[in-house]
């Protein structure tokens, strides 16, 4: 990027400014948006699909095994939307408003 814009390392330009000038997207923020949209889409689907069942499954009680992440896939969704994130995902307007907060805050 810096070569495209003819920038030198010593000029100390911010990455956000470089992305703005080149009109590139932030990969992390884009991944968060895709995750948020997928979660809402998956919860609003009808029927007993395995993706919905696996996501809403609570799992065994107790400590997770060695090598497993402490946080689950839905934990960062719960941080923004609360414990009733499944009901919030059912309302598209509310879910879109929460998406802005989720992508701004990050997991």
What are the key terms here?
mainly alpha, elongated, 107 residues, 6 helices
How would you describe this protein?
The structure is a single chain. By secondary structure, the chain is mainly α. The protein contains six helices and no strands. The chain is elongated and about 55 Å long.
Question: Secondary-structure map with pairings?
Answer:
Layout: H1 15-22, H2 27-44, H3 50-56, H4 75-81, H5 85-90, H6 92-105
Can you count the beta strands? 0
Overall pLDDT score: 79
Shape: elongated
Helix/strand/pairing category: mainly alpha
**Compute the gyration radius: what is it?**
19 Å
Compressed to H and E, one letter per element, the order equals: HHHHHH
Q: State which percent range the strand residues make up.
A: under 5%
Number of helices: 6
How widely separated are the two ends? 27 Å
* Largest sheet report: none
Low-confidence stretches: none
Helix content: 55-70%
């Amino acid at each position: 990027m810096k070569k495209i814009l003819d920038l030198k390392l010593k000029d100390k330009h911010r990455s956000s400014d470089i992305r703005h000038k080149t009109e590139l997207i932030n990969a992390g923020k884009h991944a968060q948006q895709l995750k948020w949209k997928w979660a809402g889409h998956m919860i609003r689907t009808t029927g007993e699909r395995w993706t919905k069942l696996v996501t809403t499954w609570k799992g065994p009680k107790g400590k997770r095994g060695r090598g497993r992440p402490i946080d689950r896939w839905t934990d960062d969704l719960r941080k923004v939307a609360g414990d009733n994130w499944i009901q919030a995902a059912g309302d598209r307007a509310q879910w879109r408003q929460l998406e802005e907060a989720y992508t701004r805050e990050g997991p």
